[in-house]
Amino acid sequence: MTENQTWVTEFILLGFPLSPLTQVFLFGLFSLFYAFTLLGNSTILGLIWLDSRLHTPMYFFLSHLAVVDIAYASNNVPKMLANLLNKEKTISFVPCIMQTFLYMAFAHTECLILVMMSYDRYVAICHPLRYTVIMNWRVCTVQAIISWACGSLLALVHVVLILRLPFCGPHEINHFFCEILSVLKLACADTWLNQVVIFAASVFILVGPLCLVLVSYTRILFAILRIQSGEGRRKAFSTCSSHLCVVGLFFGSAIVMYMAPKSRHPEEQQKILSLFYSLFNPMLNPLIYSLRNTDVKGALKRVLWLERSM
Which helix (H) or strand (E) holds 11? Predict the structure, then answer.
């Protein structure tokens, strides 16, 4: 490091290199998606809170998933929307690192919450007589705490490794938020250790949990096929297919982003996948669970009927 090098105090988020008119259109479209994300996940939380029939382990974890989706979208989308209208697209160093930390923490936590949900479905379908004993409220609370704690600790490891790096220029992040891979490209030192930790974390938080989910649902599938009642099979398939849709969307895009070989345009690929993560996935989760889940639809009808009666 030479003496005349200056340290970066803020970054410029390049975002989407589009015409002003297109950016205004995207601002309106993404604002609508963000509103649907907040409304959908808040509705899920409200229904679980108001309807005592949804006070079960499955919906306990679903409420945590809704909280993660709201927080995840709120961490990235508002800044992206502001930058679509502003000419100055700067972000200070500390808020940028904080955005990176929250992004990683919520992403890791969602991975683990999805694993807990798959385990809950496995116990419910494969060991129904022991379900209330195995998935008691103490166990569910511990599992939720472990998910949030592990997600935050892993994100903290990434941030600590970033803070040890010097950032002396350039200061343009080719992304719409401070995504970790894009931030590392601006470091003025070797990021080999960071890349190794990111890959190791991806194996631990993506491949490992995905294998557990697949094992759980393989055993669930065999258990469902043994159910004699057609109505029982239909209900089990409906509940599990909703979860599998969410798992496929989340883990699939994450593995492509952090573990698949990079294309010729890795920055654009990261932007699209991150947009899917930050906006589309949190918006789709409540739709998937509400449209394909009879319990949620029933709770919504009961709440609306109660409001109309009052």
Answer: strand 10-13
